[in-house]
């Protein structure tokens, strides 16, 4: 027996060391002993472990490429089903590999002999495997196989069969060797001989089943398994088996029509073929499950068509992404279902009772069904929407009662809101608007120039405000970004705005705070804080760098005649020039006069920058005007301050200035008249007959003075000062530039209304053509009478003055309280009221009277 | 018959792969030797012991060759 076994090794050795030409019987013996001895215990019998070891070795030797090659080869090897003891082969190769050989070497031939002989002695030929066959090497091998194969996957199946079926051999091996193992078996003992044939047959048979099993466990759709299923459930003539229905359903879930469940175009959904033999009990469940397919189709179509559409915008893209994420989950479920279906087929042999049924599927699909339904609803609602509107649509679903749906919506909304949120952050922080697809609720008009940046460049896109952001918040966000832009572009301010970095850092990652504001106020707080800081910074810059308040004060002083001495002196200097017709006026002359006026008064202590901006302006000339009518002061503004002092508001300033200037001039003229009267009084004393006339004169003049003074008082104290105070208060409280602008606008509106310069007052003071003609005639008559006699003239003047006396309470009915005050002040002692109560109902417009008065005063002064 | 042919080609493929791994690992075994080793392994030989035998034999053969060369 030993010799027989040796025969096998004989051949092997003759082959492996075929270069040795000698008969090497001692080597056989030694080799046999070595192989037979159990001294070489195996530390690892796991294929994977060995493979890893080899790879590590490669890596250690810096042969990463080879490691990759090896793992590829190993993978191929694993694909081979013929080899069972792969681990053993790998182990062997590993042991023999270059390095280990050199490590183990080191001995010479003598040691070899020595060690071999020691083996011979120390380990008895028959080892301690006493329980098993003991007397020959091949039995040993078997025992080793039995113990080792247990751990290796596929080969373990065979472990009970004593693996000795013929292993595949490459063709290069001569056919004589092919039979070697079998031959060994045959040679092993007489009693084995008859059973060998059977065994081989058995193994072959087993091998086939094995293959099918392996194939199926590989989950490939194989013809075998299909045929299996078909053969398993032959079914009665038209009753479909459950497995078929399930397979149909799994396809339908992914929107693929089946044989029996078809897509019905007219009804838009998957319908079961009426003729299909589906048990009635299952029909309903199948129909409900088939809905999933339709919903899946809807979602998939939407997501697929939109995800390539670039114009759909970031918000839309993220919505598609969210949908895709959900669909991926769904796909996962599908693959699990499919796997389960496969297992169903496999488990036919062994009845486990855990196989997939339609009812079970209905239960499993419950959750996904709801999710799909929600998403389909979202897709439906979001059709044709983008940006903020899309987020609004999704947000409206957030308050769903079902917590699972709510969390789904919440998840999707978080994804959808992410681009909006980051846009808000960049907009607030950098003032940059990265909104290529017009989805953000702040719109920017690139054509607007810097001067109008604040007023016109940025607008709110109301339709794009997501519902979770209130209009107020949107406005604040708009203002913040606008302020940043204003600072950067108009104010050319590059300094960073303090205490905003922290806000940004703490806020960036909390998308959810944007749509759960009722739960946490982080977003609101962030907006408020950023808004406040930015606005404060902007106002600081305006006040310090651009001296906004100084400009405002300059307006008050020069255009609204706040600087009394300057105006008075200017009037003194200009008197001669302005009496000339406007054609005779030269801007450079007037400018130099203005310069003189500044030098001569307290105005010289003002900031040089402000004085430089002060200028003379000649208004448009209309026929009959004199210098006084066209003269106007002007104040140039530029830069950021222009945002507040817009051209429109400058026009109002000029109009108010014009009015005040005229009133001032009246006062100036009347003061002149009074002076001449005083000086004339003495000269004319010698003519007592004149005293009556003079008295009349005095009366008239003082009445006029009274009127003008009251007007002045009213304008100065009740209009200008009050409004000015209000404006300053508002300026101090102002939170942002818009507040300042609004306050300034209110200020201008108030003064123009109270000075009776607004449209409403003008309507009342207006002059129609007929009135004008009448006026002309009246003036002619007036001149005629004037020529006749001084006394008569004076009395006429006096009476006409009486006639045009304005205060009448009937006027005041619709007027503002201030106007009433004004009326009241004019007729404080009710002198006029007492004189002629009918005057109250006078219908002569005020403005006519005013002109009249001026006319008369001019005539008086001419005289 | 087709089955056995397929098996044969599969076996050849497996053998090729093993040879490649062997060269990668620099075992110094040629294809034929390897085939024998594989067969031994398949029939359940202890790879550790087999490795030992092969190493020893390789060593012997080189020693013999050296001796030959010195003699001649």
From TrEMBL, chain A:
Belongs to the TUBGCP family. Its main location: cytoplasm. Residues 549-761 form the Gamma tubulin complex component C-terminal domain. Residues 246-545 form the Gamma tubulin complex component protein N-terminal domain. Residues 851-863 have a biased composition (Basic and acidic residues). GO terms for biological process: cytoplasmic microtubule organization; meiotic cell cycle; microtubule nucleation; mitotic cell cycle; spindle assembly. Transmembrane segments: none annotated. Residues 142-163 have a biased composition (Low complexity). Keywords: Cytoplasm, Cytoskeleton, Microtubule. GO terms for molecular function: gamma-tubulin binding; microtubule minus-end binding. Residues 136-180, 835-863 are annotated as: Disordered. Residues 840-850 have a biased composition (Basic residues). GO terms for cellular component: gamma-tubulin complex; microtubule; spindle pole. This is Gamma-tubulin complex component. It is found in: Cytoplasm, Cytoskeleton.
Automatic annotation (TrEMBL), chain B:
The keyword Cell inner membrane does not apply. It is found in: Cytoplasm, Cytoskeleton, Microtubule organizing center. InterPro entries: MZT1 (IPR022214). The keyword Kinase does not apply. It holds the Pfam family MOZART1. It comes from the Eukaryota. Belongs to the MOZART1 family. This is Mitotic-spindle organizing protein 1.
